[in-house]
């Protein structure tokens, strides 16, 4: 694999002021493994408790599967994120910097202002009859109200279910129905990349099949006229103007639900992941501080949407629990031009920047110019999440964006894990481009073979987690049997991630892709990530997706979809060149049998390549493509079907 043996040492200037250096990481890791009770009894104090728990951990991955953390503790998540910072004299610090889609628009909200806005909406929701345990659906663009709505639910003990604002009426309806929400919070319209998104119109369409919804609270954002149904629809600003600015936080048990969030749907029908209050909050705060080495006063920006778990944990709950200034961006990386991310970094003096490989690859495709035009001097740490990052993209991020000054933290985790589990720590871990490196303290990963046998030392196989951590999901909402079946039945007694991984001689983890995507060529198991990374390492390739296809002799052959860099034309010559390139990079076993030029790849709304659809196209099984409701652009599929390589 290109550059996979490159080792980038910890930077002394980063280590010098880091919360955790290499020795401290080892000590923490050992202590959390040896004495989890003692370790977490201390770490749980990083959040505010109404009653501190005496019971720490109660987890059993067998039978009915039972996961409890801090069970007799009482708290309210919004107090950790708001009240205690004000009590500590930091009420005038900026909590949220909002950067609008239009480069001329931004706003700053202090902790004191955020507290008041949260309390007003909390009171308004109470007046609408929302009680502890009720479900509230949030379908908003990336505006401050999204964070306010989440925290207002937490304030009164309502369970929020955030649905990404880019989802269709059908996707919204199925999520509302699954968790039987009684209130929907939305906006007139959203803005993205210079276009508007008709959120209220989508909501109206969805609600035709959602009898559980009693009221719709509508934020006036763009000011576009929208129909308001009398008795059902209410304006946010009117409700909040009437509501009192103080609201006593509802005392919540540590194991009371905080939110439901549906997974991205890369592998099939989305699952309603349920997270509870105490363990999730401890994990959000712990991982945000360690992985991003967050220090007070720093400006932190995670580019995810609040509709994904990354937005929940690393735009809202983690940063706010840690008293950070968190940036919320309404727009997209490519509008008005491909410099936008870096312009925003310069404008707000961002110190920590966290994005996804899909964004990095898209920007890489445009060359270095749009990056070089900006300063980026404020940047200290870079992060990535969502898919395996190809070493080529990692190095581009490190060299071009961070100018070799900023460590890159490649963070592996899932909606189900609540927060980051495997990642470098900036002051502790030497980096290898393309590797998520080492587990965080409290995380016990394992690699098992097909029969569930634990492999020792350097090994490749299925990535499992051998013990619980505080941020783990507790159940699939309304379907505990599906929870047990999905995560604990493949390898009894272990949590199965669905991902494949390789552990090298240094104990570093390399995520090889989803296990369902592994290709078996003449008895050799090949991860998609490795072949894709080889293709992306070619100077003319911007992005690649590799799947298996039926092959008479080899069992499976390799079918590659390739997106070329801006300005490069496909040709028969280039096709041969790429085949030869992969043979040289990985070996003859990885020789692609077919290469299809793909102007664009089918991706989930969160930007992940949907290989299950590509697999069907490659196998010519295009009649039934499965659940495509979470696709960002369904038109891409038709184009690929039409140009399938025979
Ligand atoms: P679904 O479970 O509905 O199919 P999904 O798995 O895409 O959707 P998420 O929980 O958003 O939903 O994504 C988690 C997955 O993303 C991981 O299991 C892994 O496959 C991938 N992933 C996330 N971060 C990384 C990373 N740093 N390196 C490699 N893969 C990653
Ligand atoms: Mg998943």
From TrEMBL:
<feature type="binding site">
    <location>
        <position position="538"/>
    </location>
    <ligand>
        <name>Mg(2+)</name>
    </ligand>
</feature>
<dbReference type="InterPro" id="IPR042099">
    <property type="entry name" value="ANL_N_sf"/>
</dbReference>
<comment type="similarity">
    <text>Belongs to the ATP-dependent AMP-binding enzyme family.</text>
</comment>
<dbReference type="InterPro" id="IPR000873">
    <property type="entry name" value="AMP-dep_synth/lig_dom"/>
</dbReference>
<dbReference type="Pfam" id="PF16177">
    <property type="entry name" value="ACAS_N"/>
</dbReference>
<protein>
    <recommendedName>
        <fullName>Acetyl-coenzyme A synthetase</fullName>
        <ecNumber>6.2.1.1</ecNumber>
    </recommendedName>
</protein>
<feature type="binding site">
    <location>
        <position position="514"/>
    </location>
    <ligand>
        <name>ATP</name>
    </ligand>
</feature>
<dbReference type="InterPro" id="IPR032387">
    <property type="entry name" value="ACAS_N"/>
</dbReference>
<dbReference type="GO" id="GO:0003987">
    <property type="term" value="F:acetate-CoA ligase activity"/>
</dbReference>
<feature type="binding site">
    <location>
        <position position="310"/>
    </location>
    <ligand>
        <name>CoA</name>
    </ligand>
</feature>
<feature type="binding site">
    <location>
        <begin position="386"/>
        <end position="388"/>
    </location>
    <ligand>
        <name>ATP</name>
    </ligand>
</feature>
<feature type="binding site">
    <location>
        <begin position="410"/>
        <end position="415"/>
    </location>
    <ligand>
        <name>ATP</name>
    </ligand>
</feature>
<dbReference type="InterPro" id="IPR025110">
    <property type="entry name" value="AMP-bd_C"/>
</dbReference>
<keyword id="KW-0436">Ligase</keyword>
<keyword id="KW-0547">Nucleotide-binding</keyword>
<feature type="modified residue" description="N6-acetyllysine">
    <location>
        <position position="608"/>
    </location>
</feature>
<feature type="binding site">
    <location>
        <position position="499"/>
    </location>
    <ligand>
        <name>ATP</name>
    </ligand>
</feature>
<dbReference type="InterPro" id="IPR011904">
    <property type="entry name" value="Ac_CoA_lig"/>
</dbReference>
<feature type="binding site">
    <location>
        <position position="541"/>
    </location>
    <ligand>
        <name>Mg(2+)</name>
    </ligand>
</feature>
<feature type="domain" description="AMP-dependent synthetase/ligase">
    <location>
        <begin position="86"/>
        <end position="465"/>
    </location>
</feature>
<feature type="binding site">
    <location>
        <begin position="192"/>
        <end position="195"/>
    </location>
    <ligand>
        <name>CoA</name>
    </ligand>
</feature>
<keyword id="KW-0007">Acetylation</keyword>
<feature type="domain" description="AMP-binding enzyme C-terminal">
    <location>
        <begin position="530"/>
        <end position="608"/>
    </location>
</feature>
<dbReference type="Pfam" id="PF00501">
    <property type="entry name" value="AMP-binding"/>
</dbReference>
<dbReference type="Pfam" id="PF13193">
    <property type="entry name" value="AMP-binding_C"/>
</dbReference>
<dbReference type="InterPro" id="IPR045851">
    <property type="entry name" value="AMP-bd_C_sf"/>
</dbReference>
<feature type="binding site">
    <location>
        <position position="583"/>
    </location>
    <ligand>
        <name>CoA</name>
    </ligand>
</feature>
<feature type="binding site">
    <location>
        <position position="536"/>
    </location>
    <ligand>
        <name>Mg(2+)</name>
    </ligand>
</feature>
<feature type="domain" description="Acetyl-coenzyme A synthetase N-terminal">
    <location>
        <begin position="25"/>
        <end position="81"/>
    </location>
</feature>
<comment type="function">
    <text>Catalyzes the conversion of acetate into acetyl-CoA (AcCoA), an essential intermediate at the junction of anabolic and catabolic pathways. AcsA undergoes a two-step reaction. In the first half reaction, AcsA combines acetate with ATP to form acetyl-adenylate (AcAMP) intermediate. In the second half reaction, it can then transfer the acetyl group from AcAMP to the sulfhydryl group of CoA, forming the product AcCoA.</text>
</comment>
<feature type="binding site">
    <location>
        <position position="525"/>
    </location>
    <ligand>
        <name>ATP</name>
    </ligand>
</feature>
<keyword id="KW-0460">Magnesium</keyword>
<dbReference type="InterPro" id="IPR020845">
    <property type="entry name" value="AMP-binding_CS"/>
</dbReference>
<keyword id="KW-0479">Metal-binding</keyword>
<keyword id="KW-0067">ATP-binding</keyword>
